[in-house]
Design goal:
Layout lengths: L3 E3 L6 E3 L6 E5 L3 H7 L4 H22 L3 E8 L7 H25 L2 E5 L7 H14 L6 E8 L1 H19 L8 H5 L12 E4 L18 E4 L9 H12 L9
Parallel strand pairs: 3-4, 3-7, 4-6, 5-6, 7-8
Antiparallel strand pairs: 1-2
Helix pairs in contact: 1-2, 2-3, 3-4
């Protein structure tokens, strides 16, 4: 891996010695990608799954510590049943392949979200990938599945409220760290950079707590068309910014 990348146009550069530690992506635009081609939405999700595979592998190759992707939100259950079924089928296919390849690729995997509504088979596959991941070091891919930022914060608040009742804890002693430690992402650093393809400019209930000081990058490229070069363009934009975290 070279230490420096420059786009063919010469407008974007990336210093691989100064990468963001944690990149998160809202994988958006699958349905529109399919519609533009006269294909069913399920075809867009299949293409998006292949893009995810490519980007996750590349994240490890360039040396990212964490990659978090928004795969299925708490609101996505409202979609047509055949579309939800197709997404879950793609997840099953990916996890089965990942389990076979994790020893070779040594990519760690974790899941953010409430997995209880999933089928027993999918929950078991998620658990197997988690267990295998405990043996590896390096890039960790976090898949947000049945995930919502508000739901995550609500769960943390309930946990802390129950602790205050159970142990007689003074609520005034609750800290930001207490909340962070009860999120699905506990132990994972907050994302430095959040990328949203597809031209939409909103957060869509993604990592609401964790993104307080994240840098955002928006692009009109639909997720199935998102390439390694698009990722590098986003990182290039990130490296040109000055992060002050509320300071001067």
């Amino acid at each position: 891996m070279p230490l420096f990348w420059k786009s063919p146009q010469g407008t974007d550069t990336v210093d691989f010695d100064a990468l963001p530690r944690h990149v998160a992506i809202i994988m958006d635009g699958n349905g529109r990608w399919a519609k533009q081609r006269g294909l069913p939405r399920t075809a867009g999700h299949a293409a998006g799954a292949e893009t995810f595979r490519t980007i996750a592998t590349y994240a490890k190759e360039i040396g990212l510590d964490y990659l978090t992707v928004y795969a299925f939100s708490t609101e996505n259950w409202k979609r047509p049943a055949n579309e939800v079924e197709a997404i879950m089928g793609l997840l099953k296919k990916y996890l089965l392949e990942a389990i076979d390849q994790m020893e070779r690729d040594r990519v760690k995997m974790a899941f953010f979200g409430d997995l209880t509504p999933l089928t027993p088979e999918l929950r078991e596959l998620c658990q197997r990938t988690r267990e295998i991941s405990t043996h590896y070091e390096g890039c960790q891919v976090n898949i947000c599945l049945n995930y919502g930022g508000r739901d995550e914060i609500t769960r943390a608040a309930r946990s802390l409220a129950a602790e205050c009742v159970r142990e007689g804890r003074d609520p005034d002693t609750i800290t930001e760290e207490d909340i962070s430690n009860r999120l699905f992402s506990a132990g994972v650093p907050d994302p430095d950079l959040i990328i949203r393809p597809s031209g939409e400019i909103r957060t869509s209930n993604f990592l609401l707590w964790q993104s307080a000081y994240s840098e955002y990058y928006f692009t009109d490229v639909l997720w199935p068309d998102f390439t390694k070069e698009e990722l590098l363009k986003a990182i290039s934009a990130y490296q040109k910014r000055s992060r002050r975290f509320g300071g001067v």
